[in-house]
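agent> fetching stored inputs for the iron/sulfur cluster docking request
agent> found them:
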Amino acid sequence: MIIMFTHQYIEPHQVNAFAYCKRKWYYQNRLKLQIINDHMEIGSYIKEHHWMKTIKRKEIYLMSNKWKLKGMCDYIIEENGFQIPIEIKKGKCSAVKPYKNDVMQLLCYVLLLEENLGIKYTHGYILYVGSKRKFTVNITPNLRKKIQNYFKEIKSYLRNGKMPELQSNKICCVGCSFEEYCWFE
Ligand code: SF4
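agent> prediction call returned; pasting tokens
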């Protein structure tokens, strides 16, 4: 029997997993193999670093009927009366720009806030606790297009139930918690 998930609302952390690796998304969201929650660790970091001027939104659950998206935007920064989303990751990022999967997750929060607050965002932030780096992410038309393509792709996998391919380059798998599932010989 084929179970259809096409009306399911997508969550930002799922988009993150999908943008990182489609197979990872499949393990976590279709097979429910593993869920990692690092909110507690991040929460204590925020408490110790008041300089960040970041506030935690509590139990504000947002839904977007337009994008069939739902989720909780945990942290925001207030700038000139606007609430700007900030996605906080406990890991490190030494690259010149934030990781694309984290950018896609941030964009999900932007879309949720835009629909619920009726404003259009020009930017958001991503902070990597491990390297204490904060990136400004400009919300460009190109990024908006990319996230829409991810939504379409996710829905297509939900509809057809297929298991996505492994990463073509094994180097992308270094440090992935599913390495032993994928590359067991
Ligand atoms: S080990 Fe590689 S292919 Fe497997 S889920 Fe992780 S990133 Fe994807």
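agent> quick read of the result: The CA atoms of residues 87 and 126 lie 5 Å apart.
agent> awaiting further instructions
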